[in-house]
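From the pipeline queue, job 12 of 40. The input is one protein chain; the requested action is below.

Action: predict structure.
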Amino acid sequence: MLWSVLGAMTVTGGVVGYALATREEPPKCDRLMANDQVRKLLGNRYESGMGCAEFGTELRAALTGKEPGRHTAEQARTMRAVVTEISQDVYERGEARIHKELRQPVAGALADYAEDVYDVMNQHTLGDRGATDEVEDGRVRAALPRMAVGRTLLAVSEDPAAHGLLFAAMAQRCAQQLATVDRKKAEAVEADGQLAARAVVGFCGWAMGWILRSADEQEARLDSDSSKLEAWNQVVVDTMTKPDRAVPPFNRSAAAHVFGTWKQDLAERPRDQDHDGHAKDLVTIWVSALGFEEGHEVANGLRREAMQSTRGGSDHLSYMAADCLNGKRTC
C-alpha cells in the first residue's frame, strides 16, 4: 500500500473505529455556516442561502488573509471555532467525515496555520498552550485544540487533494525546523546539543505520523476497491509534488533545499513503491546536506529517531482519538 507507514503500526478497526462507519445521510455544512464566530469573520461575505462550495471558498479566504502564515487574532479565533465545530460534529455523527465541498477549503486553511498545527501535534512534548492565542515574534499563534485538529485531519483527508495539501505543509514545516540545526549541534557530544537535534527530528516524525495515520484510514475505507485507492494515492502525490521553483543549494536556503529535494524524490519514485518513512527521508536529505557520510553513527541515530517518532505520532493519534470517542477523557 502506497501510504502505509509500518505494518506493525496498523490498529485493527481503524484509528478511531468511527472512521469506517457509513451513514445514510451525508454530512452537511449547515452547522459550520451557523457558527457565530464564523459568521462574524465572514461579515458581508456570508449570504443567506449560499451553497457549501461557495461558503467553503469564502471561509478559506477569510481565514488565511493576504500574507501566508500570518493571521489576525480574529482569524485565529475563527480557525479554532472551525476545527472545534467540525470535531463536535464528527463526534456526534460517529464518523470522521465532513461535506465534500468543505474538505479542500478547510485543509487549505489548516495548511496556512502549519506552524500552529505542527505545534499542536507535538503538544505531548511541548505542553498544551491552552485556549488563549499568543503573539510571538509579531504574529498571532492560534491555540488550536489538539483533538479537534486530529478529528478535522481525519475528516478532510477523505479528499486526496486536501490530504496532499496538509501533507506537504507538514513536510515543509519539518524541513524548516531541521534547517535550524547545524552540523555542530547535530553531532554535539554534550547532552544539550544532542537533545536539541533529536528533539527537532522527533517533532518532525511525530507530525508526519499523524498525517500518515490519516492516510491509513483512507486505505481502510478504499481497500475493497484497488482502483479507487490507486487513484486516491495518485492525486495525493500529484498535489504534493506540483512543479515549483528550482531547488536552491543547501548553503543558500537549507529549508527550501531539504523540502524541494524531498518533493523531487517523491515525484520520481515508482507509483507502486511504498512511500513510508517520510520523516526519515527528510532527515536523510538533511544529514547528507550537512556533510555526514552514509552510515555515519550520528546520521543513523537521527534516522532511527525519525522512524520511531513517526510510529509514536501515528499510534498517539489512534489511541487519543479512540479514548475521546469512548468517553475516557474530555476532548
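Job complete. The two ends are 32 Å apart (CA to CA).
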